[in-house]
Amino acid sequence: MREIFVNQDHARVGYYKSVLDEAGIPNFIRNQNSHNSLTDMPSPLFFPALCVVHDDDYDSAMQILGEIYYAPASLAADWRCPKCNEEVPGNFDSCWQCGALRTDAPPNSDEAGNAQAP
């Protein structure tokens, strides 16, 4: 067992866990249900920690998570939802307000939906 990511944001740790689950890397979150309720002050001792079960998976897991963590921010422009007229961030493919899918392709994307270099 090896720890690969610690953060007080349970959602971020959970997201990274789902990425490793999808990659088939056995893992678990230590301190998933713990928090410091005595002082309500965040303490790294109680932060959720993502761990790989097998030490041999450490390098693969770090590479996968590194690609996500260090990915460049989306350069796509914000867009307006055709259904509810809400302004939606450019990196979203569906409207956060009503769930409608984006009808136009983001700029600088190929047929597979992968961003191309400028």
Mean pLDDT: 84
Spans of at least 5 consecutive residues with low confidence: 109-118
Number of helices: 2
Radius of gyration: 18 Å
How do the strands line up in the largest sheet?
1-3-2
Order of helices and strands: EHEEHEE
Distance between the termini: 41 Å
Helix content: 10-25%
What gross morphology would you assign? elongated
Strand composition percent: 5-15%
Using DSSP, what is the number of strands? 5
**Major sheet:** 3 strands, antiparallel
Subunit organisation of the chains: single chain
Give the class from helix and strand content and strand pairing. alpha+beta
Describe what you observe in this structure.
The protein is of the alpha+beta class. It has two helices and five strands, in the order βαββαββ. The protein has helices spanning 10-22, 58-69; strands spanning 2-6, 27-30, 49-52, 79-80, 87-88. Strand 4 (79-80) and strand 5 (87-88) form a beta hairpin. The radius of gyration is 18 Å and the shape is elongated.
